[in-house]
Structures are given as structure tokens and as C-alpha cells.
């Protein structure tokens, strides 16, 4: 796979002394959606800002489409579109003019055919002559995306695209992002919403305290860290786990009415059949069983509470 962005041992220490990024190395592949996940202050915005040329790194390099962001910044920046977190639009300006104006910032001439295509793909064509203040919150966010796409970037950064928006609007944004991906745009998004990363991203990078803890395909991350728990409800409560079952790694609930058994979903043998057989052999009657997959949220908490070695994929 071709890397459209190559980040190599990138570091940033602000003048205040805060070390916001430490030795981040990551290749972002053309056409993928990668989500950067991390708690407040993890360094996500700093990373995006460096790639977009808004913050100067103190160490390391970034190449976009092969162009170094410092020595060849003009070519690098032309390949990038940034959708900021805050909605900042000229309230009295028409939608179409806002989008046209952005092309000028990149030194690009008029291209109304492209502007029309962008506005149509974001379902904004009918609103092209409306002043931006007349738009709903969702439409305003789409205008920000249209502006970011006006100069035909190959890479789009979305900084917390759905922060503070309702569920319906979040779904709408996900659809827009899915559509952009189908058009071949590489997308890097930051988010606090694990559900969002799981839903949209091909890969997830977890950042904490300026370090990239890991980058994995979303499904692999879920499979690798995702454990399942089998809960066995008992017809009669137990006071303790019988010695015969001691090696089975069972947890008895405080009321003694259920047993929890954690197992690896990828293991060839989960041990469930044996467990149920052993329970029957001990005369322990089972009322019901249920299983639960650990969520990305639990996976994430495990990662940020137990710092791992840097891994890049
Ligand atoms: N201009 C700045 N000057 C000094 N310190 C800064 C500056 N910008 C960010 N920081 C600090 O760098 C660290 C990383 O901040 P950053 O905004 O990159 O994190 P983030 O992961 O984007 O957080 P959030 O999810 O809250 O947006 C934080 O400790 C922050 O206070």
C-alpha cells in the first residue's frame, strides 16, 4: 500500500515546556480512514496541526505525497484539506462564495464545475445562494467540509467532526465521510467517540501523553483485545467456588448467583463445553447463560492505563 503521509520520529515541545508529542512514527495509506483516538491533551490536535503546517515540530519529519512539510510546504499543503473543530464561517456570505474563496487561498483559479460537484456531493447545492447564518448546524459542518475539499486535496483531516452534535447529525456526518472515502479521499479524523472510530475507521491509532501507543486495523484491534465473558446464572447460589473448579479461572458474583468466565474469542478451544460439563459433574445447575463482548471502550481503557511499547503498522 502506498503511504500518502509518512511521519517519522515526530516530536513537539511547546515553548511553555509541554511535551505534546514524542517520537511519533506512522505511515498513513492512500485511501484509508484512520482514526486517532486519545484522551484530552493526548496530542492529537498537535499532530494534525504539524502535518497541516500550523505548528512547527521540534523534531522529526513529515512527508505528504513525498513532499516534506517544511522544505516543500507549498506542494505538501496543496494535498491537504483541514476541517476544523470550530465552526467559523462568514455569517452573511453565500455558501458558494465561501467555498470558492477557499480555492483562492491555495492559489487555485476558479473551477465552478468542481465547486458544483463538491456542493452536490454534500447535498448543499440547493443552499448555494443561502447566507451561511441561515443554515442548520449540520449544514454548516458540511460547508466546512466543502471548503476543505475546494482545492481537490488528496487528504482530509477532520478534527473531532461530531463533537457536541446529536446522534442524527453524527450519523449524517458518518455517511458524508463514507461517501468521501468511496471517492478516494484519505481521511484522518480525531475523535473521543470510540463508537465513531469503530464505525468508520479502517485503522485506529491510540495516542496518550504524546505517544502513539499502537496502530492497528480496527477489526484486528477488536479481535486482539476483545475478550468475551460467559456469565452462567445458577439455580441455587454458591457460597464459594468448589475446589474441583479452582483452576478454571471463574469469578463468583457477590450474591453467589452467577459465575463469570472470561475467554479468548480467537482460541481454538474456548473451554466452554468443558466448563459446563464440570459444573454438571459438581451438581451445579445452570438456569441461563449469556455472553458479552468487551467494547472498544474497555479496550481503550486497557491501553491508556497500561502504556505499551510503540507499535506501528
Ligand atoms: N499552543 C500551545 N502552547 C502550549 N501548550 C500547548 C499548546 N497547544 C497544546 N498544548 C498542550 O499540548 C498537549 C497536547 O495538546 P493537544 O491539543 O494536541 O491534545 P488533544 O489530544 O488534541 O486534546 P483534546 O482532545 O483535548 O483536543 C496538552 O498538554 C496541551 O495543553
From TrEMBL:
Domain (ABC transporter) ranges: 5-234
InterPro entries in the cross-refs: AAA+_ATPase, ABC_transporter-like_ATP-bd, ABC_transporter-like_CS, ABC_transporter_ATP-binding, P-loop_NTPase
Gene3D superfamilies, per the entry: P-loop containing nucleotide triphosphate hydrolases
Gene Ontology molecular-function annotations: ATP binding; ATP hydrolysis activity
Keywords for the protein's UniProt record, in alphabetical order: ATP-binding, Nucleotide-binding, Transport
Alphabetical list of SMART domains matching this protein: AAA (SM00382)
Keyword Membrane tagged: no
Protein name: ABC transporter ATP-binding protein
The species this protein was found in: Paracoccus sediminis
Amino acid at each position: 500500500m502506498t503511504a500518502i503521509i509518512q511521519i517519522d520520529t515526530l516530536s513537539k515541545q511547546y515553548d511553555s515546556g509541554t511535551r505534546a508529542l514524542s517520537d511519533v512514527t506512522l505511515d498513513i495509506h492512500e485511501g484509508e480512514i484512520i482514526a486517532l483516538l486519545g484522551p484530552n491533551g493526548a496530542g492529537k490536535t498537535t499532530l494534525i496541526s504539524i502535518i497541516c503546517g500550523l505548528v512547527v515540530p521540534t523534531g522529526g519529519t513529515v512527508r505528504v505525497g513525498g513532499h516534506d512539510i517544511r522544505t516543500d510546504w507549498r506542494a505538501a499543503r496543496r494535498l491537504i484539506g483541514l476541517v476544523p473543530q470550530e465552526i467559523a464561517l462568514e455569517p452573511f456570505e453565500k455558501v458558494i462564495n465561501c467555498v470558492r474563496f477557499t480555492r483562492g487561498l491555495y492559489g487555485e483559479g476558479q473551477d465552478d464545475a468542481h465547486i458544483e460537484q463538491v456542493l452536490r456531493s454534500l447535498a448543499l447545492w440547493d443552499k448555494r445562494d443561502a447566507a451561511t447564518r441561515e443554515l442548520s448546524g449540520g449544514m454548516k459542518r458540511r460547508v466546512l467540509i466543502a471548503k476543505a475539499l475546494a482545492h481537490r486535496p488528496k487528504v482530509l483531516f477532520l478534527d473531532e467532526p461530531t463533537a457536541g452534535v446529536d446522534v442524527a447529525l453524527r450519523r449524517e456526518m458518518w455517511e458524508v465521510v463514507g461517501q468521501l472515502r468511496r471517492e478516494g479521499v484519505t481521511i484522518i479524523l480525531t475523535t473521543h467517540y470510540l463508537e465513531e472510530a469503530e464505525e468508520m475507521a479502517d485503522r485506529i491509532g491510540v495516542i496518550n501523553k504524546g505517544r502513539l501507543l499502537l496502530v492497528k486495523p480496527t477489526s484486528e484491534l477488536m479481535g486482539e483485545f476483545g475478550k468475551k465473558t460467559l456469565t452462567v446464572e445458577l439455580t441455587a447460589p454458591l457460597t464459594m467456588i468448589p475446589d474441583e473448579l479452582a483452576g478454571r479461572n471463574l469469578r463468583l458474583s457477590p450474591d453467589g448467583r452467577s459465575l463469570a468466565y472470561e475467554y479468548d474469542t480467537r482460541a481454538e478451544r474456548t473451554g466452554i463445553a468443558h466448563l459446563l460439563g464440570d459444573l454438571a459433574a459438581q451438581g451445579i445447575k445452570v438456569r441461563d447463560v449469556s455472553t458479552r463482548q468487551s467494547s472498544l471502550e474497555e479496550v481503550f481503557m486497557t491501553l491508556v492505563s497500561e502504556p505499551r511499547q510503540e507499535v506501528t503498522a
